[in-house]
Amino acid sequence: EKNGYDHFMLKEIYEQPKAIRDTIKAKVCNGKILLDEINLSPKELRKIKKVFIVACGTSYHAALIGKYMLEKLCLVPVEVDIASEFRYRSPLLDKNSLVIAISQSGETADTLGAIAYAKNKESKIISICNVVGSSITRCSQGTIYTHAGPEIGVASTKAFTTQLAALYLFCLYLGSIKGLIDQKTCKRCLKALEKIPEDADTILKRASELDELANLFYKKSNFLYLGRGINYPIALEGALKLKEISYIHAEGYPAGEMKHGPIALIDSSLPVVILIPKNQLYEKIISNMEEVKSRGGIVIAIAIEGDKNIIEKADHVFYVPKVLNELTPILFTIPLQLLAYYIAVKRGCDVDKPRNLAKSVTVE
Ligand code: M6R
């Protein structure tokens, strides 16, 4: 039931602090990460030479973020594929490869197809999944379960943020086993992850700011989302959320790629959502924002609390709490979910059941 919320999607957006907390709780005990559920021994994990992550839609965006996390924290090369593409190229898998399939439903046909292909190559296969006993979990050696609870809205929200939390836990686990992350660092990272539900709550309390922004922009027919590095996939996710529930055309782009084409789209009618974490790419993204401004684009900045510099540069600013860089995607995605939601509602769209879409896509 909707518990007093107008839509399942809104209810599920608000359930994120609990969903993330439950996912962490299920895998962390006395400051130690327990992932027996993957059914891979430390010895097997140390032998992995390459990781392939496969998924569709929003889960694919989690996969892209997983690549950033795994390469940085676990020093293992990672390839990410849209599941429907994976087996139709010739990915160089073998028994030293680990395939991670990410799926909320565990029933997505394309992802199942990718797993079948990997099985044939004798690769190790684990999944990150929200539905106990689903087809994908049954085809995997082990599963890291997300504990998001049932997700009813077609637009994936809490499943996505719990996938990111699960990926981060897996990275800390693997990095520790490989001797790349010491106990002290692991504890510090876990602490930062454990604070995310509280930070998510802070964002949810500011939802009315996004409702007001939606009032200004719900009649637009195009949107652009820009991000860099680990937040580039969040630009893709923000755009996907908006297009699937509001039917507004939206594109996500790596901000540095703008000058190679999409900058031609910018005029004074185009809202451009820019994700601005305080990391080593900060100056670069600020200059991308200035490129948008000087062509008349309307900048909606999602920035880190305390970054006052942004106020005079952007047209609108929404702040999220400061967190570790690897965790910024979890927080940045929440305002984008809310923005898409309020825009879709104002356009009179059927938010929980957008046209032409099904919750789980069981055909290839
Ligand atoms: O159940 P899955 O995670 O395998 O589903 C994958 C996609 O179909 C799904 O994420 C879809 O893109 C959502 N509608 C996005 O909000």
TrEMBL record:
Catalytic activity reported: D-fructose 6-phosphate + L-glutamine = D-glucosamine 6-phosphate + L-glutamate
Occurrences of domain SIS (ranges): 41-180, 213-354
Localization per record: Cytoplasm
Assigned EC number: 2.6.1.16
GO cellular component: cytosol
GO molecular function: carbohydrate derivative binding; glutamine-fructose-6-phosphate transaminase (isomerizing) activity
Enzyme category, top tier: transferase
Keyword Repeat on entry: yes
GO biological process, one term: protein N-linked glycosylation
Summary of subunit composition and partner proteins: Homodimer.
Name this protein carries in UniProt: Glutamine--fructose-6-phosphate aminotransferase [isomerizing]
